[in-house]
Amino acid sequence: MLRAAASRCARGAIRRLSSAASPAAAAAGTRRQPPLDEGDWSYYREWWGEDEGPGEGAHTVFRRHSEHGNGVVSVSAYPASHPTSDQWTVTERWLQERNAKIYPSSTSDDQFKILGYQWRVMRFNDDTRQSIAKVMACYRPSGDTVIYLMQQPHCLAVPYVKSMVSAGLTALPSCSYDLHQAVSGQNNMKILCIGHGGGSLPLFVASKFRGAVVDIVEIDPVVASASIDSMGFPSLPAKGLPAQSMQPADGNELLWGGIHDRLFLHIADAEDFVANYGSVYDIVFIDAYDGDDIFPRKLWDADGTFLKNLEKKVHPIHGTVVVNLHSDSELRFAGVENSSHGESILPLGKHVSQVCRAYKQHFGLAFTAAVPWLCNITLVACRDKTITSGAKLGLSRRDFVLGKLLSKSNMVEHALDLPFPCLQYMKNGFTLVE
User: Which family is it part of (predicted)?
Assistant: First the structure.
């Protein structure tokens, strides 16, 4: 989650970015040439909107009141400039191949056509931007016009999600996990996502890792419905959701080709789920804020049942936990560290150090990385035996751990064919939690 308030402390960086090369382009000269990053932050003008609401050019496609502390959950749509219409034919051909495989007797009249691409932005109470996803809309010209929505799993629009992916997936192989075998599907990879939003993070990891099995825990059925009906997330059955989705019945099979079979959506409280569900996870992603922008204390209380149970449900050798946190660090740089305004717009800021120490206490090692352009930080907690082993050669503990992480970042980029550089997100404000 990112607050509209976060944009205020990032505006200076946004303005500077508009006249500079994108971070992906800047890294391309010395590294592999990555694929085009359709979610590069330089596109933020297309989907950011106004601080107090969607802004000019948007239209609302979903709006419903939540009974779980999120207020009014809404989804707004904005036009996306990429990919351009001359690039649509490749995807239309892929859709037709999928259609012919599912329906061998289909004719040329059933040819799929792309209507276009949009940014879909989920908000709580018309203010807090909960998540952003790029969505493709397509249809068959013949017969009744049925619109299919498909979220683009390769496109991560928000820097904090890229930071979570970069830091978490770099920590895993640093703790001796074989990432290549999970990518190829030779090994199963158990992933838990606490907090669903639009579903971009679980879709991303499920599409990149053939061996991934992803459990998603979301307490609010309205949020889950919004992601399925309006943000192109697969129509997954879950207790507490309507039996029928607004999406076409064959959408999952046509668009997702089995990826949806490895995604499991649970409408549940995270504390209860972790206490009662039996899996042991390789990596856990946590991004769980409510409509008041609060990260529940029970999810970071060092003496609470959630962390005690989570410790048991994370792999004892390479288990890694990644948490999105709001931070007041950029406000301190702006000279408003002690202002009441800072306290009001970033309610978690003063608790960040406590959260970090709580996760370190339960998992052994913890570090943070600052998210570029936003008032967020990524916290990673993992088992420390492998990542801290070896000769330090005069390096401080911080530099030794950072060196191990950075040595894996290029491998992660290549293995997953990432359109953004892990290195940038790993190094930015790297701090070892002591």
Answer: Belongs to the methyltransferase superfamily.
